[in-house]
Write a structure and sequence with these properties.
mainly alpha; 434 Repressor (Amino-terminal Domain); 68% helix; elongated
């Protein structure tokens, strides 16, 4: 393996960011952006959950029974009020990629 050494000159500003914009960004701006990012992630999780359920051909009630969660939980996920986490998130990914195996394992 070859080692390459580089010297970075801090006087030379390069890259994909605008340093003036970064310097002018306030903590309030950052907090707002974090909130917007979190809201978008929740909507993406809601769309993903809904897409997985529909691809399997289940109603919300049938899906809730098959994955052993409450109907209210499915509704909250699909409306973006809550997002699946941990094992539920992993299960949705498996249901998306290998539905037959996942459903057979769930019994």
């Amino acid at each position: 393996m070859k080692t390459v050494r580089m010297t970075i000159d801090p006087a030379v500003r390069s890259g994909r960011i605008d340093p003036r914009q970064v310097d002018s960004t306030s903590e309030i701006d950052i907090t707002k952006q974090i909130a917007e990012d979190n809201a978008q992630a929740a909507l993406d999780a809601a769309k993903f959950t809904r897409r997985v359920r529909r691809r399997l051909g289940f109603t919300q009630a049938e899906f809730a029974l098959r994955i052993d969660v409450s109907l209210e939980t499915i509704r909250n996920w699909e409306q973006g009020k809550r997002s699946p986490t941990g094992a539920a998130k992993a299960l949705l990914k498996v249901l998306d990629k290998a539905p037959e195996i996942a459903l057979a394992a769930l019994g």
